[in-house]
Inverse folding.
């Protein structure tokens, strides 16, 4: 590998800052409410089905999560849940918007280093309003020359983005925690990808590691990114 | 006025296609449900308060609308509403995502003409996933060189956008139905604006027409845009 990286894009949720953990905490609080009505050990499968159906209609993000939880609570309790408990579920969901942005270890230092030598893009999937709020509160915006919030990270999205920025796929590198969103579609269009797994994987993003032996690098901490890219790709900040 | 327009941005909801009408229809259906529990003649003020509070937390769009309606229904019925009626409210809200995109009169012809002579941008505020869905279904995407979905249309947003596209405010024209979002902030940063009022104005966008005599043009139909711009601004399509 000796490709020049003209654009280095980095995912945000669970790559730069904590995300899934907050959802898990909200889910636990919601389960406590539902336990008054039903056996919550059974709910995961139903929840997955309602959530999957809703993603195609509503998209990603906390607002979709809240609507899914309301529907699931009514369905799983067979309509027995009281209105004040539904309101409590909405309130729990809305607290996700007021959680502080918690940067993961070594993020700030790594971005400070990388931004010296590469053109960085923050490239995140999800709800526009919500992601912009997190980006604004992260204190990281100064390290990124570009910020792109997209509704889905698939081959079509990456291709359109690279075309818009006039970057050949071989000169693009994506780093992130999701094989499904950050790694495989980028490899599929001929780009470069570095996987930084996070301990929490949302089940919608949980795909099997590719067996086809495709060419991507896995690191355990974002701080490894600097040395790794330096070794594998010539450092050059180019005007795009 | 004899400014050259390098970028002509056009709003989408209720400028290019029907939007508020569908919300009003959904609201009527939801009121029918609430009438079983309470006097809905009283609800508009409470609804406005809940919705206003939610916009700052959740942003704009149908998902925010659904969450607002659930909270409002529980609050207005003092918790008496049954779970199955709450589920019905969510379902009514979700049907807004499956409404076909209904273009307003003369939109397609006007865009076809304007795109010959101006660089067009579709510039819309709201939920990313939802707005992208509408844009994709509108059949209009070919007329626009750029599409921007923003979470708020204020001075800061317009300034950042123009800086990113390297356009001076005096060479920018915005056309849309909302004085609050499409006209006043553009004038405030030194840009040009054309107001195309729509019969439905969302109460959050309903601001008094400016008394200060600021310099913007009002037209009653989008088809007037071609002649108006042609008369007031030199026609030139420039590379940006």
């Amino acid at each position: 590998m000796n490709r020049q990286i003209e654009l280095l894009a980095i995912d945000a949720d669970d790559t730069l800052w904590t995300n899934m953990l907050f959802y898990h905490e909200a889910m636990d609080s919601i389960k406590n409410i539902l336990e008054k009505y039903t056996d919550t050990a059974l709910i995961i499968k139903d929840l997955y089905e309602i959530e999957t159906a809703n993603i195609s209609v509503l998209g990603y993000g906390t607002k979709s999560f809240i609507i899914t939880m309301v529907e699931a609570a009514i369905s799983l309790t067979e309509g027995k849940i009281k209105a004040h408990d539904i309101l409590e579920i909405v309130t729990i969901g809305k607290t996700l918007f007021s959680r502080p942005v918690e940067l993961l270890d070594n993020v700030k230092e790594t971005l400070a280093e990388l931004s010296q030598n590469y053109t960085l893009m923050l490239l995140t999937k999800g709800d526009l309003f919500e992601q912009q709020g997190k980006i604004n509160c992260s204190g990281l915006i100064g390290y990124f020359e570009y910020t792109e919030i997209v509704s889905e990270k698939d081959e079509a999205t990456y291709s359109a983005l690279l075309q818009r920025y006039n970057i050949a796929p071989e000169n693009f590198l994506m780093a992130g925690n999701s094989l499904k969103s950050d790694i495989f579609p980028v490899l599929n269009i001929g780009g470069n990808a570095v996987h930084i797994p996070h301990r929490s994987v949302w089940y919608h993003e949980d795909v099997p590691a590719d067996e086809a032996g495709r060419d991507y690098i896995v690191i355990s901490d974002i701080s490894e990114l600097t040395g790794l890219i330096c070794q594998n790709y010539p450092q050059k900040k180019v005007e795009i």
Q: What stands out?
A: Chain A touches chain B at residues 57-61, 63-64, 66-67, 70-71, 73-75, 77, 79-84, 86-87, 90, 94, 97-98, 127-130, 132, 149-151 (CB under 8 Å). The longest strand of chain A covers residues 120-125. Residues 98 and 133 of chain A are 10 Å apart (CA to CA).
